[in-house]
Amino acid sequence: MPGSMTRYYEIRRRADTVIIQLPEKVRYIIGSIRKAGYEAFAVGGCIRDSVLGREPDDWDITTSATPRQVKGIFGHTIDTGIQHGTVTVMLEREGFEVTTYRIDGKYEDGRHPKEVTFTPSLFEDLKRRDFTINAMAYNDEAGLVDVFGGIDDIKRKVIRCVGEPKERFGEDALRMMRAVRFSGQLGYEIEANTAGAIRELNTNLKYVSAERIQTELVKLVTSPHPEKLRLAYETGITQVILPEFDICMKTDQNNPHHCYKVGEHILKSMEEIEPDKMLRLAMLFHDIGKPKKITLDEKGIHHFHGHPAVSSEMARDILKRLKFDNRTIYFVTKLVKYHDYDVKPDPAGVRRAILKTGEDIFPLLFQVKAADIRAQSAYMREEKEEKLKAVYQVYHQIISEKQCVSLKDLAVTGKDLIEETGMQAGPELGEALKKLLDFVVEDPSRNKREILLKAVKEFQ
Length: 460
Prior knowledge:
Helix content is 52%, strand content 10%. The protein contains 25 helices and 13 strands. β3 (77-81) and β4 (86-91) form a beta hairpin. α16 (277-285) packs across α19 (326-338), α18 (307-321) packs antiparallel against α19 (326-338) and α21 runs antiparallel to α22. The protein is elongated.
């Protein structure tokens, strides 16, 4: 029995009240390790989520057994991170990470310890973890092992570092973003000392890779509380990773249509849209260019003419800086560019809007525009929402009637034009097809082969 076992019994009163239903395969792994004479517990996020009544995404197991000993217990294992003590145990094609209790050495890259030392003490292993809510372990014999007050912090709804916050953030700077991300996912506040350490050490985030920053940012903005990005601003994180947002937080909008500063409007708009990656990022960036386009008229009213195009270009630059994939960049920048595009609520106007924005982008704009409206002042809100509703009704009619709004729906193809008019492949052919599409968008009844072949000759 390791010396830390005495600590387990100190919290047994609490453990007796917390019963976690471990999955059958997790119980099998823990049971097999224990039968071999070692300790084993489910640990970390899966325990936190179980306590909160959530379905864990995965189950991690920690053990006093060394990687070699774990490999000797199970028939099929993969050395996924054996230098850091992690072996993946495979059960019926499902993998479970099993990691040896360890003490981390010095972190030299702000992410990984240079070396790790295996230890027989669960207490020492839990002590190296980031936050108290992630530093709990459980098995059916010992119950809940919570030596750092994770349950209390769940009850208090706070994110608090295990031990000294400066040490935890010094080991891995990304933990500062993780603190804010957990705040967004759980709706918790960040404990004062933990927040203070973030304010002091936030500049260390510049040493963290863009890919890791991106991952945490997406998890935050798609969380149930994307407005917690405000905490990232208040603790200085966005000054390092997203300085453009800080400027928005300081930019006023003295305009009847608005009641918040630009940054607060952005936060509110993210709350008003579903937690989809593309949509939330679109709201994050839809007004990011407003500070660059702000003007003041003779009545003291702010205007932001041309801000969608500027915001779209800024979004592109930021997304590339954070190493987002091309598909995300395409959708987000398009939604930002057209978020304020005025669509006339009549068939021709809607068809032109679909043609301009793209068939893949236009239907998403309804959610973007609705969220934008709800994040504005009450001024003319009802009229704006009624107009948007009217546009949607027209759009629904266009789609249900399968009206032509793209080249693929056109009654003639480039091959038809070559065969029937003698036109050659090239820019002239593409321009002719575009004119025909414009011709049909104005009146769908024109989308007939004979009408279009006649029309193209008149265009020449």
